[in-house]
Automatic annotation (TrEMBL):
Gene Ontology terms, MF aspect: dihydroneopterin aldolase activity
Family: Belongs to the DHNA family.
Keyword annotations: Folate biosynthesis, Lyase
Domain Dihydroneopterin aldolase/epimerase: 2-112
Biological role stated in the UniProt entry: Catalyzes the conversion of 7,8-dihydroneopterin to 6-hydroxymethyl-7,8-dihydropterin.
Pathways involved: Cofactor biosynthesis; tetrahydrofolate biosynthesis; 2-amino-4-hydroxy-6-hydroxymethyl-7,8-dihydropteridine diphosphate from 7,8-dihydroneopterin triphosphate: step 3/4
Designated name of the protein: 7,8-dihydroneopterin aldolase
Catalysis performed (reactions): 7,8-dihydroneopterin = 6-hydroxymethyl-7,8-dihydropterin + glycolaldehyde
Keyword NAD among UniProt keywords: no
Matching InterPro entries: Dihydroneopterin_aldolase, FolB_dom, GTP-CH-I_C/QueF
């Protein structure tokens, strides 16, 4: 799941928390897909629509000072909710960070496993 865009209110500065800004999130899941692939049974995989909704909740409804906390909460939620997932990688990208300079984004990468 790549480059999911959200508008959130995360940041240390008051302006970030009141005006908000765009965030982009990538999620990579590690799980055994042989059962789903062999049977064509959706019950043997993880619904990317459900994962998207989980990410959207944390990105748009919750508020964090740090993008590290946003990524950590997403990773922990995925591991807690989806038993088939053995490892998750969450990238949070902040393209409008309040830094003077030219950059594509600032971001963090959170990798968690069972």
């Amino acid at each position: 799941m790549q480059h999911m865009g959200f508008y959130g209110f995360h940041g240390v500065l008051d302006e970030e928390r009141s005006i908000g800004q765009k965030f982009f999130v990538d999620v990579e899941l590690t799980l055994d897909l042989s059962g789903a692939g062999g049977s064509d049974d959706v019950a043997k995989t993880v619904s990317y629509a459900e994962v998207y909704d989980d990410v959207k909740y944390f990105a748009e409804s919750a508020r964090y000072n740090l993008i590290e906390a946003l990524g950590e909460n997403i990773a922990q939620r995925i591991l807690a909710k989806y038993d088939l997932v053995s490892e998750v990688l969450v990238r949070v990208k902040k393209p409008e960070a309040p830094v003077r300079g030219i950059f594509e984004f600032f971001g963090v990468e959170i990798r968690r496993a069972r």
